[in-house]
Design brief:
Elements: H1 4-10, E1 24-27, E2 29-34, H2 36-42, E3 46-47, H3 53-64, E4 73-78, H4 89-96, E5 101-105, E6 110-113, H5 115-121, E7 133-137, E8 143-149, H6 152-156, H7 164-181, E9 183-188, H8 192-203, E10 210-216, H9 220-225, E11 237-245, H10 275-286, E12 292-296, H11 299-319, E13 327-330, H12 341-344, E14 348-351, H13 353-367, H14 377-383, E15 387-389, H15 400-409, H16 430-437, H17 439-445, E16 462-465, E17 484-487, E18 490-494
Helix pairs in contact: 2-7, 3-4, 7-8, 10-11, 13-15, 15-16
């Protein structure tokens, strides 16, 4: 890098020269929270992100008509917060015939099943709720078809998963879509089958994304038995942390709250673990070289997590352990007194800008005045926290330019809610938002010496744009797309 003369003098003999025609070059963008397996599989699912119950059912009916005998009707993306009423199993029964149906919600924290799927899973009026979930019931006690949190597994366990080889092929196709969006790396949060598929892509010379692979806490003991630790891997696949869930999500009103939801009196959401249990898990992980990444959305969940991480930091110091780069995933709502704590504890704030613009109406209804400290990127940055932005795809689109637009405008593509944006004091400027898609994820992954910046010694993970994002209107940032993408010095996309 540098002036032409310096570059010419330092370039190796025979190094090819490419004229970029004055295009803008940026470090490759990284999605710091993505479910790569689930995202790759959504390409084959019914798109259930419909404006009404009737529209969603019409899509399910159309797909069901093309299915073979006994084949599952699978879909993703429904969000009944804007529908006239929640869906029921009987609604699906009317459009799926003899096919079992299983549709995951946009949040991935609830699912909708028809009667045939419930029959195959053995879910009846007598089936008890699992400890970490709920079977929503009809007035007669029979299952309504809506399954919350851990209850989703009662039905999903009946669906034959793809083989690692089949998944690798689907992920190969999906990564091309991610390149076209400008992504050169991801932090994945799926399970062991995803890791197997990633390794197959790597062996075949097909992996063109840098991947920080986090593991479910349920897989931690297996990882310990074979001696794996956070940071193990190479420049393409590196192990991250062990992930646990502290609560649910805003959509199904299972995010854990200090005070009840405004639109659901008496409902405080669901806490899966208390601070002592989280500390125990953190100590078990830490003694074997693993950091923690913790899902927390509601203000009560985040308070509990911060208490647990404070205790874990004390134990790290007392035991002489390395200071791990622990993360809180989502960090959507904090009590005002907790806002400075992630920075004080040196915890990565892993957040998703598109959640704010997707959720704003739902958050206004459920959290009321509390939204002033919701999706609080500016407050976190001002307190000194390190931001790492992602999408939670397939919950949201992984397009980082859509995320950048949300971060700097707090508005949707149609300009809503107003020119100032939703809770406008939490907006970032473009440089800050870009850092959260580059330097932030690189630091969280332990790759800060090689990624997240342009400079001698950094990996050649670059994106090329026809426009300089710093010279256009904020609303135009959303429409940017790269004309070139390079990872590891190899063009993955070239359209010039």
């Amino acid at each position: 890098m540098g002036p032409d003369r310096d570059v010419a003098e330092s370039a190796p003999s025979g190094c090819p020269e490419i004229d970029l025609g004055k295009r803008t070059v940026l470090p490759g963008l990284v999605d710091a929270h993505l479910h790569f397996e689930l995202y790759a599989l959504t390409f084959d699912l019914i798109d259930c992100e419909a404006p009404s119950l009737e529209d969603c059912l019409a899509r399910v009916r159309k797909r069901s008509a093309s299915l073979g005998d006994g084949e599952w009707a699978r879909g993703h993306g429904w969000n009944d917060n804007s529908w006239s009423r929640p869906g029921r199993r009987q609604d699906l029964d009317a459009v799926t015939g003899a096919h079992p149906a299983y549709l995951t919600a946009k949040s991935l924290h609830s699912a909708w099943a028809n009667s045939e799927a419930l029959r195959r899973a053995g879910v009846t009026a007598e089936t008890a709720d699992p400890p970490d979930g709920q079977i929503v019931r009809q007035p007669d006690g029979s299952p309504s078809g809506i399954l919350l949190e851990g209850a989703m597994g009662l039905v999903s366990a009946c669906i034959t998963p793809p083989s690692p080889d089949s998944l690798a092929s689907k992920m190969d196709t999906a990564q091309e879509t991610l390149w076209r969006m400008g992504l050169t790396g991801i932090h994945d949060f799926d399970g062991s089958r995803c890791l197997q598929a990633l390794q197959l892509l790597r062996e075949r010379g097909r992996l063109g994304l840098r991947v920080l692979k986090n593991i479910p806490y349920a897989d931690l003991e297996a990882a310990i038995r074979v001696g794996l630790r956070s940071g193990f891997g190479d420049d393409w696949i590196r192990l991250g942390h062990a992930k646990v869930f502290a609560d649910g999500a805003l959509g199904p009103r299972t995010a854990a709250m200090l005070q009840a939801y405004d639109d659901a009196p008496g409902n405080l959401g669901t806490s899966f673990l208390d601070a002592e249990e989280l500390l125990e898990r953190g100590l078990r992980a830490g003694e074997h070289g693993w950091g923690m990444t913790i899902h927390a959305i509601g203000d009560r969940a985040n308070h509990i997590v911060l208490d647990a991480l404070a205790a874990l930091r004390e134990q790290e110091h007392l035991r002489g352990w390395a200071r791990r780069r622990h993360r809180i995933e989502h960090l959507q709502l904090l009590h005002p007194s907790d806002i400075p704590r992630p920075a004080a504890l040196d915890v990565v704030a892993s957040m998703q800008p598109l959640h704010a613009t997707s959720d704003m109406e739902m958050a206004d209804r459920g959290w009321g005045e509390r939204v002033r400290s919701a999706y609080a990127w500016r407050s976190q940055l001002s307190a000194g926290a390190l931001l790492a932005f992602g999408s939670d795809a397939p919950v949201e689109s992984p397009n980082p330019f859509w995320g950048l637009h949300a971060a700097i405008t707090r508005r949707r593509a149609d300009g809503s809610p107003d020119p100032a944006g939703w809770v406008p004091q939490e907006k970032l400027d473009l440089s800050e938002a870009l850092d959260a898609y580059t330097r932030g994820p690189a630091f969280a992954a332990g790759w800060e010496r090689s990624a997240g910046f342009l400079g001698p010694g950094s990996w050649a993970d670059l994106i090329l744009l026809d426009q300089d994002p710093f010279q256009i209107e904020p609303d135009a940032v959303r429409d940017l797309s790269p004309v070139g993408v390079i990872t590891g010095g190899v063009f993955r996309l070239r359209e010039f």
